[in-house]
């Protein structure tokens, strides 16, 4: 009986993996008939909530520009025809989007990205780009919508998450990640380039990761002088390409003139990310919040000690 259950579990696991990689119907068919609202809805409808979006074949410049569905999206269009690229650039400039949306030529075969970098690939036809190449550049949980079909890249078993200050709720700072190792290349960089000061509290006081996202609390106050007011901010970035997904201001965090650089020992413990939620104390009676909207207040330990948490979900 136990052996049968084990085999059933293995079969179910293989079936789930197959379903994750198998193509299914996309929420919208691509093409010139798609209106602007349909284009803007495509990223969210595909399940991608921010990050790097790649449009292969940017001859339809309207689609390339429209794929920037919100502040958390960066869009890069690719085309083998330099004339199409020039037309797309002119159109993007007229929309005031150039920078967050950009286009370039490529050789039609190899995508110019590092492994595990892109969150969403959109194309009517991959042309000479193989599906293996598209999968290579997709980040775990990334999506490819090709010719109206959706494919999701599964999360690999050898990549772990760091949901608490000391890895997880057990407090044992050892991950089960077998991919991490000595740096071999730069995956991405992001600002601010400098911390505020080296003789007072560190600008970065807490950081965790979950679901392919990195969450951290940073003092984004002026670098001109540490005596100027602090600007504590909760920031969410895509872990694989560094795109800023959203920011949430923190009214009260800690005195930034604290003399010990690491700050109070409790600070990094006040940020936790689990599955699709982030929990953080924001210096006031806090609410539970999905990323973008409140979902209610709660006291996690029911002790009545007044310590409440705000939760947000990616």
Notes on the structure:
The protein has 2 domains: 2-152, Vaccinia Virus protein VP39 (Rossmann fold, 3-Layer(aba) Sandwich); 204-312, no CATH class. Helix content is 18%, strand content 27%. It is built from 5 helices and 16 strands. It has helices at residues 2-21, 36-45, 61-66, 82-94, 131-137; strands spanning 24-25, 51-56, 73-79, 101-105, 118-123, 138-146, 149-152, 204-210, 213-219, 232-238, 244-249, 271-274, 277-280, 288-290, 293-296, 310-312. The chain is globular, with a radius of gyration of 22 Å.
Give a brief description.
The chain has 314 residues and is α/β, with parallel strands linked by helices. It is 18% helix and 27% strand.
Spatial shape: globular
Q: Which class do the helix and strand fractions yield?
A: alpha/beta
Output the radius of gyration.
22 Å
Classify the helix fraction into a percent range: 10-25%
Compute the number of strand runs. 16
What is the element layout, followed by pairings?
Blueprint: H1 2-21, E1 24-25, H2 36-45, E2 51-56, H3 61-66, E3 73-79, H4 82-94, E4 101-105, E5 118-123, H5 131-137, E6 138-146, E7 149-152, E8 204-210, E9 213-219, E10 232-238, E11 244-249, E12 271-274, E13 277-280, E14 288-290, E15 293-296, E16 310-312
Parallel strand pairs: 2-3, 2-5, 3-4, 5-6
Antiparallel strand pairs: 1-7, 6-7, 8-9, 9-10, 10-11, 12-13, 13-16, 14-15
